[in-house]
Amino acid sequence: MGFGWQFHLSLLLAICTKGVIIIAVEFMDLPRTVEVEESMTTGVVASFTVNCTAPSSTGFNVSLESINPTVTFFNSPNALGNGTFQVTLRPGTALNAREVNQYTLVFKAECPGESSVTSQVYIHVKAEDILECDNTFLNTVARPLLVPENVPPEAVIYTVELKRRGSGNLTFAFENDSVPFTINSVGEVRVPATGFTRAQAGKLFQTYIVVRGNDGRSCRSFLVVQVQPVYHNTVNFTESSKAVSVLENQGPFQTVTRVHAYGGEGHVLYQIVSPGTDYFTIDSVTGEIKNTYNLDLDRNPGLAHTLLEVRAYNMLHPTDSATIIINITVQRWNLQGLVCHPAIYVTEIPETSPIGMSLTPVSCVHKDGDNISLQYQMENSQIPPYSFSMENNMLRVNTTLDCDSAAMASFKFQYQATILVTDSGSPQQTTKIPVLVTVSRVNEYMPECSPRFSSSIPENAAFGSFVANFSGTDRDYPFNNIEYSILQRGDAFYISRRTGNLYVLGPLDYEEQTTYHLTISLKDLDNDANSLLPKINFCNITINVLNVNDEAPVCTPAFQQHTIYSTLASNTNILTLQCHDNEEGSQLAYTIVGGNTNERFYMQGSTLFHKIFSYNRDGIFDPLIYELLVEVTDSRSTPRFSTTATVIVYVIPWTTTVPTTTMTTVTKMVSKMPIILHRTEEYWAPDPWFVVVLTFTGILLLLALSLLFWQFCWRKAPREISQPLLQSRGKKSERNYVVTEEPSKDKGKDYNEQHHFDGCAQDPVTGQYYLYDSSSGARRWV
């Protein structure tokens, strides 16, 4: 209120000054400081009053200009009336005095027609002793803490984070003791003293860290750690360096040394890292180091000492590697050697080259030009052995060169040998000529047919069913590389082009065709350097179709009728069913399955017999018509098919019994011959279809007669209401018109009395008859 007297003085001057109106605005109780607890999350923070001396004080405006530091915790001032405003916290606000303990809110007030005034409210946040943990890992989106397996022992991987620390000292402990980590007094989570084991690699560890204060308050922080597996290097050399010595002028491709690294599970490869020299090479698989050129110190003195850095690495994990230093010393050969042409013997010959065939000769001379005799011989290091021989300086074929073997395929069809050239001088000089002979393949052999020439397949085999394998053989390398095809065009079978497997293509029917004779073409592939010279062979095979029961028996006819007398002897056959089956070897069985009332009929084979009938009206009275259903089965084992034949038997009751009397007679037994009487009774028994047709025809005829009679009566009967037709005739035109009258009996009588109808005619359009009066022209329908 220190500024209140200034306001009143200004107001007094404004009142006393004639014709002058002064407008002023001010904050009555600002600036000031307000204290709030940091646990406060919503509610009123501060209230203040604004005074405006304008004639109409309802027009002034108060706004929140800025917040320092910038946050969104506070709402804009809310007007309560009479110049009073409130400042409130937004719901869900989290104040933290340890981060920010004071906020400065700048408010601006302005009246109409006057400049604005600003003032401040200082919000002081009072700290409270609250312990609150940060649980970031409880968030479903948060990823676990990834720690590599090879992290150093006792390394800090995580520090417990607290939103609010509270007061006093804190203690940290794991809620679950099964985790392999340790935690110290400041909340640092460390790797075990021995580091992670390989068994723990790839596992996920979850635990709660319990934080307790001196005042008994505690909170829990959730931690998720995943140990990521790390590949462990296993490739290593047993020594870090190796020294070797070689002689100069020994020719190229001489083995200098061999290196070997352990580990890598059989996937170790070798390479020369440095220097980048063309004089030495290493086999990436075996680690054998060779010289690529002749080592001549006269031409290249720098070859006397060479340091090679060789690297061995795991081909599946290139970072798993080790290196070794190879110190190669080339010793000088002081004597002049031999010079041969060619220095490396390389040629290509076909495998059909005969034994003793001469190849290109070898020519060697002394460097100093001395005419000394030379001796040529083959070393015993030939691969394969004894393949070539030397006659003077001529290289000859010493054995059959066969490419059609797995051993030669392993050598990539290359014969290796060495020609040793020795002079007769003293001291004796020698040189070696590497020989590399590539043998080209020749298609020598015809593909041979499979030893299997026939097979069987049931006739109900489905599409794609495997029949048999008719793969042939080919002694040319690559072995059995044959393409198969069927020459006949048909839709019953097809053969796999590469395997020789025969499959079913179309439906088979034993009743239509029992045997298939197929010709299979066998063409070898890639057996010759010239791919245009294949050999083709043809093989004949037989496919037998096995009969399978797949058709039901057929009875001719399937429906029969028969009439017998009830007195027919039971051992007399009634009829024999004529049934057959297209399947070979089928045995038909006949069984009555329906209509056999009182079991009066039975089957013996295909024959129908009956038992004694009973037509006693006081006892059992058998039917007069039997509709028997006979099932005919074609087999007693599965699959089984059957059909049903219908037999209708009409039984005519017949009796020879005579009435009995009580008279006792004495009969003299006289031998008499039996008299057999034959009586033929004719009757008409039409077929059922004839009765149906006859009945239907009679009904149609009766309907036609009824319709004709009704039409005739309808035309003769007069109508109750008739309409007279009047015809007026003029001189130039004629016009017919109808006179409409009420249908009453009195008018009808008057109309009939007025007109005398003396004629009858038929209307040409409708065909209806009418009466007419010739004098007046009147008409009446009849």
Written overview of the protein:
The protein is mainly beta and 782 residues long. It has four helices and 55 strands. The strands form 17 sheets. Strands 52-51-55-54-53 form a five-stranded antiparallel sheet, with no helix packed on it. It has a four-stranded antiparallel sheet with strand order 1-3-6-5, with no helix packed on it. It is flat. Mean pLDDT is 80; it is low at 1-21, 657-670 and 718-749.
Index terms:
single chain; 782 residues; mainly beta; five-stranded antiparallel beta sheet; four-stranded antiparallel beta sheet; 55 strands; 40% strand
Biggest sheet strand line-up: 52-51-55-54-53
Q: How much helix is in the residues? A: under 10%
Give the overall form. Answer: flat
Supply the helix-strand structural class.
mainly beta
Largest sheet: 5 strands, antiparallel
Number of helices: 4
Gyration radius, to the nearest Å? 63 Å
Mean pLDDT: 80
Give the strand tally.
55
